[in-house]
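# step 3/5: fold
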Amino acid sequence: MSAFGSLCLPMAIGASTITTTSLRPRFCAPLSSSASPPTSLLFLRPPNPIFRPKRCSPISMSLAADSSSSSSPLVEISNDAGLKVTSPGIIGQNDLLIVGPGVLGRMVAEKWRKEHPDCQIFGHTITTDHHDELIKIGIIPSLRGSELTDKFPYVVFCAPPSRTSDYPSDVRLAASNWSGEGSFLFTSSSAVYDCSDNDFCNEDSPLVPIGRSPRIDVLLSAEKEVLDVGGCVLRLAGLYKEDRGAHTYWLARGTVDALPDHVVNLIHYEDAATLTIAIIKKKLRGRTFNGCDNHPLSRQEIMDSVNRSGKYSKKFLGFTGTDGPLGKRMTNSKTRAEIGWEPTFVSFPQFLGLPD
């Protein structure tokens, strides 16, 4: 599912074997938003009082002290390549766990650290493919099967369903690492709304009935896991930035067999990250929100903007489809009013430097 008029989800980036030297978790290098395409999904076991190295192979862990900061015990993590990462034994009141530290997850981490410079940010992944990158940007990585020290006051789940056979179960496991304080937020998709004829759709619109679409069933089941424990759900429209999104896919193909009039709803990655932060800061319980720019566009309008912008070396040739659903027109005025949030990029044309 994708940002092309069907299901669009924020993706997670995997993690690679680390070969660097020892780093401290409070290392605060600037986060990069130009991460590689998302590939991972993350999982957590229920937390235990301490790390248990025998259950986390190939990662081994040993206690270490940090004389330069607090007196809290630290856990030193090493892998077969010799990398050691010092991880705190005590979770702070502003510490954040990101399940799926991909493009969106890393932006959330960057913005959260700006507001809480002394916090610890953890990222849980299904592989070690990008663990070295996570460490360099100040995210403490952990791998599927590892056991984290404590429960976290803030948990953001932004991993996609594409790398797992039981997405709701994965969300349930992530929820077990939430302390019940702060906030637990799950990023879902606006595809769950039962609108397809160019109708307007808001936070209170009807959902796709269970049983109609297996893909939507998975999302709705995952949302239920979150809401049942008091977490919040953020249903995001199609995510994009200059080098990532539906427009780059269509541009690469040149000609696409799809209906040009199909309406697409969008939100910039940066705006999705700021909305995520704004929601978790509210510490709300059992709520559902929409993430979009309130400026729906047809596929043709999107690619016309790309061609006019002059920002891309290629030109899009056109859509050749003649039938199909017309899509929906998402609004999130209710979300904006309650959360007190507005997007930086009010529309896709404005992002490209064009008048709306």
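# step 4/5: annotate
Residues 34 and 190 are 24 Å apart (CA to CA).
# step 5/5: archive (pending)
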